[in-house]
Amino acid sequence: MNPLTSGGPFKKMKGNVMKNRDNSGYPDNTKNQIRKFGYNMIVLAISIGLYYLGFFGTAEGPLNPSGIGQKLKSAGFNGHHLLFALSVLFIISLTWNWIYNSVLRLHLYLENPKGENNPKPVKKGKWGHTVCGALLILILTFAFHMYKN
Prior knowledge:
mainly alpha
């Protein structure tokens, strides 16, 4: 039994060209490599653009961190404002699905007071938990460095 024609990603053989499930001439692995290479090229182009705008601090530009810091300082922005903004983002990332589920249940209750429609609640996924955890770590780290002096 030939493992290339008996199953796996290959379903058909036409002549000498093996076709996979979506009838393209490439096996799934090659398509994934081409896709990943394309993503890498997009990230490289964005990174080069950000470099020349000064985002990484090694070139002069409108996004240079020292320039942004000076503009924020002249506008009266300080560490307490940043800590407050991070705290608000953390609270939003923690409670957005609770608020959404409450509003959904209230809306369905007002439409049908008998409560026959019981919606499936929206839960946070791995990205929601990651954002929540990252914000908490940022808040704790920033607060520790801000108040240790």
